[in-house]
Amino acid sequence: MADRRLAARMQLVEVEDAPTATPPSRVQDNPVPPVPVLDDRASTRRALRRWWPVAVVVVLGVVVAGVVTSARDRAFVARIAAVPGLVHPLDSAPGPRWETSGSTLPGTVLAADGALVVLTAGVDAWTVTAHDPASGAVRWATEVAPSSRAGFESTAATCPALREDVGGLVLCLVQQPRVLYSDDSSIQEPPRIAVVPLSSTDGARLGSWDVRGAIVGIDRVDDDLVVGTLDADAHLVVQRRDGRTGDVIWSMVTPNVMEQAATVISASMRVLPPLVVLEGGSTIVLDVGDGRTIMTSARFSGLQVAALGDRFATWAPVGGGRVRSVDGTASYALKGLPVDLSADDGSRADSLVVDEGPEIAALDVTTGDERWRTRTTLDPRLLVADRLVVSGASTYGVLDAADGRVLWDVDTGVVLPWNPLSDGTLVLGPGTSPNGAPELWGRGLDDGVRYWSVPLPEGVRRVDAIGGTLVVRTENTLTVYG
Fold first, then answer.
1. Most-buried pick from 63, 92, 142, 176 (CB within 10 A)?
2. Degrees to nearest 5, angle at CA 424 with 159 and 421
3. Which residues lie below 8 Å from residue 180, measured CB to CB, with a gap of 6+?
4. Which stretch of DSSP H or E encloses residue 370?
5. Helical H runs in 40-177?
6. Per-residue DSSP letters for 250-292?
7. How distant is the alpha carbon of residue 38 from its chain centre?
8. DSSP alpha helices (H): ranges in 143-283?
9. pLDDT of amino acid 155
């Protein structure tokens, strides 16, 4: 693949022509008879007849090379653009393109139908706005709830995101305030969350429905919501519901009590496609597709779960870890839990990266045989082009994902405010200028060479790749770089 950074690295060089050495002339002992001088046009015609095939071959070679390079470049861009969590390939150092109000809270920025969708709390209303990622132009804006009027009439909103573009449906959750003036019976009214489905095309409302009860968690999977609530006996009720209508796709109730105030046990629910993980008195793993129970741990076992595509892994303080098939059957043992990467382009689909505390190991994904082991205090963040980007404390760098070798690392001198990203060619990581101002550094994925540095706003809290767009957030602003 042609080096996408070549143009950025080229520099003008001034070259001086050296004098040409010419041997002294001398009279030949047997001079050659002079060659008759041909007419200029005749000479040109003969030269063209002699050399045109060579010229055609050269031109064709240049054209073919350009076409191949262009095709490879387009294929590279398309491949990177298809991986959630990676920035679309950058041709040069990025700069701020546009800015809007924003927040660092989860569920306030997502990609939908190619747009960057931002949820903001204004003076009068919570508003969902779809922007063109390149220009910031507003495609549509929809108010989903009134803003809070007072502490006891507070509202809150969030729009659960997926790692990938959510497509044609934006789902927003609005926490409804309790009734302010009522009789004693209505004070006991359970909490209520309104679900507001919006079209990603024009922001039109596609209906509405409510979630009521003691809500443990709500998360999105495809175009549906998985909802967890506690019943009167502290059992966890889990349902997958259609995002547009609220129709129940499947439902289950845990056989065990999942929350106990006396023992300070709180119930929780996490959606880790293709799993739903319930935690409380015990850990229960469900299939997100049909709600069936895959496995249940012993009470108070401290079981942890990681999704692995069509399989999953578990780890507990007693008994260690296991990789399991979709039916819960254990296959091979693990010393740690597989890492949860923010982006994975599948370049090492045959390996499983496991965090074992002071070491990172790569195992054969089928057999569990160890392929390499590296001692490092840095945590794996993302995998791209056979390179594992790692970071921790004030340092980030890259390991060769094939053999675990440390290719490079850099100590920024300050605690990293956010985790590094990549556009497939560069590592986009945090840095500081000589005067201590925040910067974005673009370093070669393979060599760690810093090709550029870009100033960032003061107070930057997050830098994310959302739908391939480089999004920089402070406490109250969102800036798109490109």
1. 142
2. 50
3. 152, 153
4. strand 370-375
5. 40-81
6. EEEEEEEE--BTTTTB--EEEEETTEEEEESSSEEEEETTT--
7. 70
8. 184-187
9. 81
In what side-by-side order are the strands of the sheet with 351-355?
337-338, 351-355, 359-364, 370-375
- In this structure, the strands spanning 395-400 and 311-316 are unpaired
Tens of pLDDT, residue by residue over 42-55, are 554 554 455 555 55
Report which of residues 318 and 209 the model is more confident about.
Answer: 209
Over residues 251-296, the pLDDT tens digits come to 999 998 998 876 678 899 999 999 999 999 899 999 999 999 999 9
Whether the Cβ atoms of residue 294 and residue 286 lie closer than 8 Å to each other: yes
User: What is the helix (H) or strand (E) element at residue 144, kind and residue range?
Assistant: strand 138-146
Pairing of strands 387-392, 351-355: unpaired
Phi–psi pair at 210, nearest 5 degrees:
-115, 155
For the chain, give me the number of helices (H) and strands (E)? Answer: 3, 37
Looking at residue 148, its pLDDT comes to 74
DSSP for 322-357?
A: EEE-TT--EEEEESSEE---SEE-STTTTEEEEE-S
pLDDT given at position 10: 37
Amino acid identity of residue 221, one-letter, is: V
Check residue 43 and give its pLDDT. Answer: 54
**Contact present, 282 and 297 (Cβ < 8 Å):** yes
How far is it, in rounded angstroms, from Cα 188 to Cα 126? 27
Which DSSP string corresponds to 17-34? PPPPP-PPP---SSPPPP
Q: What angle do CA 403, 304, 227 make, to 5 degrees?
A: 120
CA-based nearest residue to 304, from 275, 264, 332, 331: 275
* The predicted structure's pLDDT at residue 215: 93
Q: 318 pLDDT band (50/70/90 cuts)?
A: confident
pLDDT at position 51 is 55
Choose the weakest-confidence range: 188-197, 365-374, 450-459. Answer: 188-197
Confidence category of residue 302, pLDDT binned at 50, 70, 90: confident
CA 169 to CA 222: how far, in whole Å? 9
